[in-house]
C-alpha cells in the first residue's frame, strides 16, 4: 500500500470500460482500494449519496470525498497520489492527451454505440462510417508503442475501450469496424495494451462480457 | 506582455461563450494575443488546418501549436503561463472545478439549448425543467462570492455562459429559467461576475448578440 494513501473506495461495475479506467489508474499508482460492486438496476444508497447528480459509476471515494466522471477521476488520482505519472509533464502534451481522451468519449464511443446498439440500418451504417472516420484520426495520431510513449499514459487508459470492448462488440454483432488491416498501428497498440501486465489484471473477464452484450443486443431486437 | 509568452493567436467568433472562456483566461493571465475572427459560414484554411478534427472555434495557437476544446484550452493556458492561478492547487478542489465545468457543458448547456432552440412544445417544456434542475445543483454548490472563492476561477470561467448568455436567451424567447427569485445565490454571483473588470472587457457587446439570437430563433420558426 502506498504510504498515507488514506481510505480509497471505488463504486463500480466490473464490466464497465469507464470503471476500468479508474482501476487501471489506481493499479498504475499502486493504490490499494476497496471495490464496491454496484447493481445499476437497483442503485445503492451509497451511490445515490456519493453521486446524486448523475447516479452513475464509477465514483471514487477518497477519505469520504467522492469524485465522479472517469477521466476526472483519473486526473484526480494523478494529482492526489505521487509516483508513476500518468500525464506528461509538458503543457502541450498534456493538452493533447486530454483532447484525444475527450475525442474518444465524444466521438469514438458515440459512433461505436450508434453502430452497435441500434436496429435501424441507416443509423447503423452511419455509426460504422463515423467509427471508421474517428479511428482513422487516432491511427494517424499514434507515433509510439503507446500513446503515452514507451509507457502507458492518460490517453492509453482512456482508449482501453477501443482495445478491449470494441472487439467484443464486433464479435457480438458481426460488424467489422476495428480490424488489423484497416488500422494496423492501432491494432498493434491494442495488443500491446491488453497484454501489458497492469492492464491484463485490470480488464474484466471476456466471456461474461460477451454474454452480457449478447443479452443487450437480443433485448434490443426483442423490443423492436 | 508576459515575458517569453511566445506567439499567441486565438481563432474565434466574438459572440461565442466558448471563445469567451479563452479570452477571459488569457486576460486573467495577462497574455497578449492576436484575435482572428472566423466566419463559420465559410471556414478559413487556417481553421481547417489547426482544427481538422472538429473544425470549430475556439482554437488557441501557441507558437504554431494548436489546442482546441474551450475547457482544455483554459487548462492549457493555466499550465503554459505562470501567475494568476485559475485552478485551485488542492487535488480535490481541482477535481470539483473540472466536474462542475463538465456538468455545465453536458447538462446545463444541453438543457438550455433544448429549451431555447426548439419549436416543439413538449421538448421545450422538458428543456426548461432540466435547466431548472441543473441550475439548482449549481445554486447549492455556490458557497462564496465566486465559485473559485474570492477570485474568479476555472468554474466561474466555464459558467460565464449562465451569467451572460442565458439572460440574453431569456430576453429573446420570453422564457423564465434563470431568475433572481428562483436562484438568488446564483443570480448574485452572475452580477458580481459580469461586473468584474476582466470579465466586463471580455464579454461581447449585448445588442449584436440579442439581434443574432433573435435571428436564429426566427429562422427556426420560418423553417417549421
UniProtKB/TrEMBL annotation, chains A, B:
> Could you tell me the keywords of this UniProt record?
Transferase
Q: List the Gene Ontology MF annotations in alphabetical order.
A: glutathione transferase activity
Q: Where is the signal peptide?
A: none
Q: GST C-terminal domain: from which residue to which, for each copy?
A: 90-212
Quickly give the catalysed reaction: RX + glutathione = an S-substituted glutathione + a halide anion + H(+)
InterPro entries for this protein: Glutathione-S-Trfase_C-like, Glutathione-S-Trfase_C_sf, Glutathione_S-Trfase, Glutathione_S-Trfase_N, GST_C, GST_C_Tau, Omega/Tau-like, Thioredoxin-like_sf
Superkingdom classification of source:
Eukaryota
Sequence ranges assigned to domain GST N-terminal in this UniProt record: 6-85
- GO BP term, example: glutathione metabolic process
EC number per UniProt: 2.5.1.18
Task: Show the GO cellular component annotation of the record.
Answer: cytoplasm
One of this protein's Pfam families, by short name? GST_C
Under Gene3D superfamilies, the record lists: 1.20.1050.10, Glutaredoxin (3.40.30.10)
The family this protein is said to belong to: Belongs to the GST superfamily. Tau family.
Under PANTHER family, the record lists:
GLUTATHIONE S-TRANSFERASE U8 (PTHR11260:SF676), GLUTATHIONE S-TRANSFERASE, GST, SUPERFAMILY, GST DOMAIN CONTAINING (PTHR11260)
Q: Mind telling me what this protein is named? A: glutathione transferase
Native organism is Lupinus angustifolius (Narrow-leaved blue lupine)
Amino acid at each position: 500500500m502506498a504510504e498515507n494513501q488514506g481510505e480509497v473506495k471505488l463504486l463500480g461495475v466490473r464490466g464497465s470500460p469507464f470503471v476500468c479506467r479508474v482501476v487501471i489508474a489506481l493499479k498504475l499508482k499502486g493504490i490499494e482500494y476497496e471495490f464496491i460492486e454496484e447493481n445499476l438496476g437497483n442503485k445503492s444508497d451509497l451511490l445515490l449519496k456519493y453521486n446524486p447528480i448523475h447516479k452513475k459509476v464509477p465514483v471514487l471515494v477518497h477519505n469520504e470525498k467522492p469524485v465522479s466522471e472517469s477521466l476526472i477521476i483519473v486526473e484526480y488520482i494523478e494529482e492526489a497520489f505521487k509516483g508513476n505519472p500518468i500525464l506528461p509533464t509538458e503543457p502541450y502534451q498534456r493538452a493533447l492527451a486530454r483532447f484525444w481522451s475527450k475525442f474518444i468519449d465524444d466521438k469514438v464511443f458515440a459512433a461505436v454505440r450508434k453502430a452497435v446498439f441500434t436496429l435501424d440500418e441507416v443509423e447503423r451504417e452511419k455509426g460504422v462510417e463515423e467509427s471508421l472516420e474517428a479511428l482513422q484520426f487516432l491511427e494517424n495520431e499514434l507515433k509510439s508503442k503507446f500513446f503515452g510513449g514507451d509507457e502507458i499514459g492518460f490517453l492509453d487508459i482512456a482508449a482501453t475501450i477501443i482495445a478491449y470492448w470494441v472487439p467484443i462488440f464486433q464479435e457480438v454483432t458481426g460488424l467489422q469496424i476495428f480490424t488489423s488491416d484497416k488500422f494496423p498501428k492501432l491494432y498493434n497498440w491494442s495488443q500491446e495494451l491488453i497484454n501489458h501486465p497492469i492492464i491484463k489484471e485490470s480488464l474484466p473477464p471476456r466471456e461474461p462480457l460477451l454474454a452480457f452484450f449478447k443479452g443487450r443486443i437480443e433485448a434490443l431486437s426483442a423490443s423492436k
